[in-house]
Write a structure and sequence with these properties.
mainly alpha, Proline dehydrogenase, de novo design (two linked rop proteins)
């Protein structure tokens, strides 16, 4: 084989090797960018959900605070209930995105929050109905149940945060 042909073959092999490496690197980079893009979307969804939960919890606290009065101001109570309902709808919308973006572990954690939220909401509804009826006979029992439900909800939200950190790769 003469030197010119050997050089030409060497250049062709080198070019093919370089092209192959570029293709592999390009695919690796595209995969890495996709993973980062997915992580960012999940992070945004989880942050929006936690923010909506926080806002809803503030509205919930306002209801529970209003119910502590011996004679709750019913128009004010109804207004706080309406704010709570609006915030609960925001949570529901944010949860839908979490469900779309998240793996099963996140969906399960969001479902636990939803379950605990429903339980607390049911107790609060009974408390509001009793306040409208002027019935304080079960106030202490409902307040104790609401406190227990609040703790369970807090633990469910904490578990969601742990799951979200794991999915996002923020495990220390």
């Amino acid at each position: 084989m003469d030197a010119g042909l050997a050089a030409l073959l060497g250049a062709a092999v080198g070019s093919l090797t370089t092209l192959g490496a570029a293709v592999v690197n390009g695919r690796t980079q595209a995969r890495t960018q996709h993973v980062q893009w997915r992580r960012q979307h999940r992070r945004d969804a989880y942050a929006a959900y936690l923010s909506a939960l926080h806002d809803r919890d503030i509205a919930m606290d306002a209801i529970l605070h209003a119910l502590k009065a011996a004679s709750p101001d019913l128009p004010e109570l109804d207004e706080t209930v309406q704010r709570f309902i609006a915030r609960a709808r925001d949570v529901h919308r944010a949860a839908e995105v979490v469900i779309l973006e998240g793996p099963p572990s996140i969906v399960d954690a969001a479902d636990r929050i939803d379950e605990e939220s429903r339980g607390l909401s049911e107790v609060m509804q009974r408390m509001v109905r009793d306040a409208h009826a002027g019935d304080a006979s079960e106030r202490a029992e409902h307040s104790a149940t609401a406190s227990a439900r609040e703790r369970r909800l807090y633990h469910a939200v904490s578990e969601f945060r742990v799951q979200a950190r794991g999915v996002l790769g923020n495990v220390d």
